[in-house]
Structure of YbaK/aminoacyl-tRNA synthetase-associated domain-containing protein:
Amino acid sequence: MACSKDQLLARLQDLQIDFAQYEHPVVMTVEDQGKYVGNREGRVCKNLFIKDKKHRFYIISALADTKVDMKVLSQRLGLGKGGLRMAPEEALIEILQVPLGSVTPFALVNESARDVSLLLDKGIKTQERCIFHPLSNDMSISLNFDGLDKFLKSIGRDPSYVDLEANPTVGKDQPPDLAAFVPSGSLVLPDPPEKAVSMQNASGNHVIASSNPKAVAEKTTKPSNNVCNVNHKSANAVKPSSCFTDSEKFVEEIIDIISAHVLTETKEGSIKQNGKELGTDIADRLKKCCASELKNLAVSIFILLNFLFQTFPYPKSKIGVLTV
């Protein structure tokens, strides 16, 4: 069950964290929030909820006027130039369990957000007090960074502050400085509910019950080129979570996983500590770090094969999954 605003405020009181609270109308932007609490003690902070291509999520917290370049941040995390994007609203609700416009570091109190990474800008530490939403955008609370740190430590988080406006060089000899903030696992959101009801007719094929017969006719007669969208499915067919339609994509997926971990482990401290043994040390760590993710890829392939075998009427030997 998600933590409520009142429960959060009670927790802050139990932790003896000094804070002030200000009620105001629902606000959706930092600018609107500033209209109501901009004259209060403390600086308003903006909070971004973003995701990478591997479905790993991050909360970025900084002073409202801090310039955060998403492309630069993506490179500093070791994700390439275009590796970050804003998280969808359903992720906000399912993972942080807060309404739209209420992103806040305090959402990490929820168990569903345990794998979300938090990046705090060092500018927060320069202020006497900062202002955040307490899980709801109809209220703001003001507290100092010591109070924020105390809360984060109470939920098992080790707060770290970084310069989000920095633009360091990232390359072969300069590994990404924020790679350690990349979560080790990925979060999977539940599939959204179907808008139409699926039924099975006498021939064993699935049909869609809809109030729009024309739409149904178009959907059932138009063939699909995507192997994951087959209209005639077996009653026991398994829907794969992802499709590897060629070997190149499969190899790229493996390389992306391994590269991310290599960049995470290849830090200046590791180089100094291990010296000539760095290669062996990284190899051992890769085995541990990549095992579960590569296993997930293998499971995806197994599910896809199972799906194809149960869906297509022709012999299994003729089904090609990976083209080489």
